[in-house]
Amino acid sequence: MNNLPDIISTHEGSTISSFSPDTRGSLAIRLLTGILFLEAVALVCVVLVLVFDILTQPATSVSSAIALTVLVVIAAIFVSAVAVAMLRRAPWSRGAAVVWQLVQLAIAFGAFQGATAQPAWGWAILAPTLVALILLFTKSVMATLRRPDVPETD
Which of 82, 88, 97, 104 is most exposed, with the fewest beta carbons within 10 Å of its own? Predict the structure, then answer.
């Protein structure tokens, strides 16, 4: 089911959109979609930094550096796909977004611990993760992303 707006041409050549408030979704789902897109952009930036580091910095283990970069590329593709799916209001996007937020929660907690702890990075990851997790379980987001064949329950 495609919930994207239909564009209708008028006789003057301008267009109007049939994007109704119900189709566009609540503020919660729009905010959630924005967070997912920001996370995708952040991951692309991390990929660029990792590639730059591989090319310019001496690595203790080049194979580990390349493996880490490949994993972050996969994560960037995944989060980008989830963000686009959320924009299109695909029902599966909610589950995928929950999984990603839980992964980020683990990464954030890791950033607070150890000999090389980076609390600033931990908070930068934790804050949007908690907001996204809360939004994912709001009634409006769950209703918007409900599969059409599943009846609504209270």
Answer: 88
